[in-house]
């Protein structure tokens, strides 16, 4: 290593300043795809793996490492346009599982925009809401019709699987969606006993647990 190289390394303020020389300007197979990567970066795509997959479909023959290095060394320093972020999957799930009348105005507008751009989510929301209507109004007689409609949705395999599994114990599910009686009270007591048991873990025996269950 020459004296000039040592001095250049010692004076470098950033890692990029250390890697100067003719080799940095050497042509690579990524050069033809850099304009596309720059454009996608400006459009808001900051996922190096996704960028690599996109240019690989366009014919890029090399691996992910070179794209990751270009994103890290070059694109990270370029500003991205500031705009609203798309809603998370958790937020969309909550919107679909909540009755539309119970959603705030802002959430209603967002879920409307999301469903307008995704026919599959629109179909899913309709099936979820019709099932929720059956549960809320104890309309178990409509379950076979719902199962038939949900099973025909080829674009929603998870929903189709859920619907078909309801047929395994159709009488019990129909009764649960029809009768006013349920095991909610029993399940509540079981949950309460489990909570007391966890609170006492390693501290006392069965006698104290028995007394706490009776006095709770």
In angstroms, what is the radius of gyration? Answer: 30 Å
Taking pLDDT < 50 over at least 5 consecutive residues as the criterion, the unreliable ranges are none
Percent of residues in helical segments?
55-70%
**Main β sheet profile:** none
| Helix/strand order, N-terminal first | HHHHHHHHHHHHH
Please give the number of β-strands: 0
Determine the mean pLDDT: 83
Globular, elongated, flat, extended or rod-shaped: what is the shape? extended
- Summing up helix and strand content along with how strands pair, one would put the structural category as mainly alpha
Number of domains: 3
Strand content: under 5%
- How far is it from the N-terminal to the C-terminal residue, by CA? 78 Å
The number of distinct helices, counting runs of at least 4 residues, comes to: 13
Walk me through the structure:
The chain is mainly α and 216 residues long. It has three domains: 3-77, no CATH class; 89-176, no CATH class; 184-215, no CATH class. The chain is 62% helix and 0% strand. The chain contains 13 helices and no strands. The N and C termini lie far apart (78 Å).
From the structure above, extract its key features:
mainly alpha; 0% strand
């Amino acid at each position: 290593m020459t004296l000039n190289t040592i001095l250049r390394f010692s004076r470098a303020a950033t890692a990029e300043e250390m890697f100067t020389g003719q080799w940095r300007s050497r042509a690579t197979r990524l050069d033809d795809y850099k304009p596309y990567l720059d454009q996608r970066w400006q459009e808001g795509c900051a996922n190096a793996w996704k960028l690599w997959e996109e240019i690989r479909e366009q014919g890029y023959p090399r691996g992910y490492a070179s794209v990751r290095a270009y994103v890290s060394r070059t694109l990270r320093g370029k500003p991205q346009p500031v705009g609203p972020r798309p809603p998370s999957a958790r937020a969309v799930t909550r919107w679909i599982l909540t009755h539309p009348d119970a959603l705030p105005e802002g959430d209603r507008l967002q879920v409307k925009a999301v469903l307008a751009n995704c026919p599959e989510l629109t179909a899913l929301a309709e099936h979820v809401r019709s099932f929720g209507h059956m549960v809320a109004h104890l309309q178990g007689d409509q379950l076979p019709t719902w199962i038939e409609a949900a099973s025909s949705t080829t674009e929603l395999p998870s929903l189709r699987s859920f619907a078909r599994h309801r047929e395994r114990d159709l009488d019990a599910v129909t009764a649960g969606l029809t009768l006013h009686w349920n095991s909610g009270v029993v399940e509540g007591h079981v949950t309460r006993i489990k909570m007391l048991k966890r609170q006492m873990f390693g501290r006392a025996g069965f006698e104290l647990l028995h007394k706490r269950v009776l006095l709770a």
